[in-house]
From TrEMBL:
Entry's localization field: Cytoplasm
GO biological process, one term: 'de novo' pyridoxal 5'-phosphate biosynthetic process
High-level lineage: Bacteria, Pseudomonadati, Pseudomonadota, Gammaproteobacteria, Cellvibrionales
Protein name stated in the entry: Erythronate-4-phosphate dehydrogenase
Residues that coordinate or bind NAD(+): D142, T169, D226, G251
Gene: pdxB
Active-site residues per Swiss-Prot or TrEMBL entry: R202, E231, H248
SUPFAM superfamilies in the cross-refs: Formate/glycerate dehydrogenase catalytic domain-like, NAD(P)-binding Rossmann-fold domains
Length: 382
């Protein structure tokens, strides 16, 4: 048996080599010839899995180690009896931590604002629950949910009137509720002065040309983009206009990627009717040097938001992601680099980012209420 897998999937050999021969290849450049003799294909979101890739191949199982499935031609897979599986929720925590890190970097205290969420599935739903646990006023737009599932559901216009809007909808191009270009010129012009718009879902959910035009008209909107239209050939003009930009890595925490690998491994074992032998507990040792510190003098005077800023920056310096992308843009403009290849290179060689729950922080002078607030973010407060 032969498995073709995206080379960027962590521990892919450790998990899958006991099942079959594993061939690792660049995900964005996979061809029909690459997968012709494969029995299973393991990908991430950069690989378009359709008839052009699979026709004439031996593939009978496709696994994507991602939440999203818009890169899979599900109709083709079903019609050709090719089993497929995704990893819903695998990197939801990673994306939520990206949102918190972005707000901390922009010095936006989310406690007193009205927070809007577009798309309340695995990622948006987790963000919603954490914000509510921290006492934040939240408004949500998701036409696929009911008020019984989320009592804070409202209209898109109401969400666009919020102080902070975070987008987590999948890319849907057909059906009753398409999300393609959900935000165009009309919607973007509705944003209030000083509004923060974050997109770490799918790039085409925002009309990127319209966003560039609106940002050319207004300088009072704060935009954070992790996803773009199109990738990897993004608009460098738009990058210049946003406050924070990154190369589609919000969900790229090491823990999130490992969760995706594990979930697809479990799914392939089930497909093959085999008992799983590998596990994250076996393959991933606990993080060493995981103690975070806050100076007692600072802790006694700082707000819980300022403490969160300090802790998050110690774990995840989101400004470094932004700096790497802008440095690549500078090199591309001077002819020293090919931007599209560099964009994928930043993803391939992304630093190992661990999630907040791997870290412990000692706050002896803090109240139990404030400790619980930080624990909602994921930190282990002792």
């Amino acid at each position: 048996m032969k498995i073709v897998a995206d080379e960027n999937i962590p521990l892919v050999d450790a998990f899958f080599s006991p099942l079959a021969q594993v061939i690792r290849l660049p995900g964005r450049n996979m061809t029909a010839a690459d997968v012709k003799e494969a029995d299973a294909l393991i990908v991430r979101s950069v690989t378009q899995v359709n008839s052009a890739l699979l026709a004439g191949s031996k593939v009978k199982f496709v696994g994507t180690c991602t939440i999203g499935v818009d890169h899979l031609d599900q109709q083709y897979l079903d019609e050709n009896a090719i089993a497929w599986s995704s990893a819903p929720g695998c990197n939801a925590n990673s994306v939520v931590e990206y949102v918190y890190a972005a707000l901390c970097h922009l010095n936006i205290n989310w406690l007193p604002v009205t927070f809007g969420i577009i798309g309340c599935g695995n990622v948006g739903g987790l963000l919603y629950r954490r914000l509510k646990a921290q006492g934040v006023k939240v408004r949500c737009y998701d036409p696929n949910l009911s008020l019984a599932q989320n009592p804070d559901l409202t209209t898109l216009d109401e969400v666009l009137a919020c102080d902070v809007i975070s987008m987590h909808t999948p890319l849907v191009t057909a059906g009753a509720h398409p999300s393609f270009h959900l935000l165009g010129r009309t919607e973007l012009r509705q944003l209030k002065p000083g509004a923060v718009l974050i997109n770490c879902g799918r790039g085409p959910v925002i009309d990127n040309q319209a966003l560039l035009d609106v940002l050319g008209e207004r300088d009072d909107i704060n935009v954070v983009l992790d996803v773009w239209e199109p990738e990897p050939n993004i608009s460098l003009e738009l990058l210049d206009k946003v406050l924070l930009g990154s190369p589609h890595i919000a969900g790229y925490s090491y823990d999130g990627k490992l969760n995706g690998t594990d979930m697809i491994y479990q799914a392939l074992c089930k497909h093959m009717d085999k008992t799983p032998q590998a596990s994250l507990t076996q393959l991933v040792p606990p993080l060493e040097n995981n103690r975070l510190t806050i100076d007692d003098a600072i802790a006694s005077q700082a707000s819980v938001f300022q403490i969160a800023q300090s802790l998050i920056k110690q774990v995840y310096d989101i400004a470094a992601d932004d700096a790497r992308l802008r440095d690549l843009a500078r090199q591309a403009r001077s002819g020293q680099a090919h931007f599209a290849e560099g964009f994928d290179g930043l993803r391939k060689h992304y630093p190992k980012r661990r999630e907040f729950h791997n870290y412990q922080v000692s706050l002896p002078g803090f109240s139990e209420t404030d400790k619980q607030w930080l624990q909602v973010l994921g930190f282990n407060c002792v």
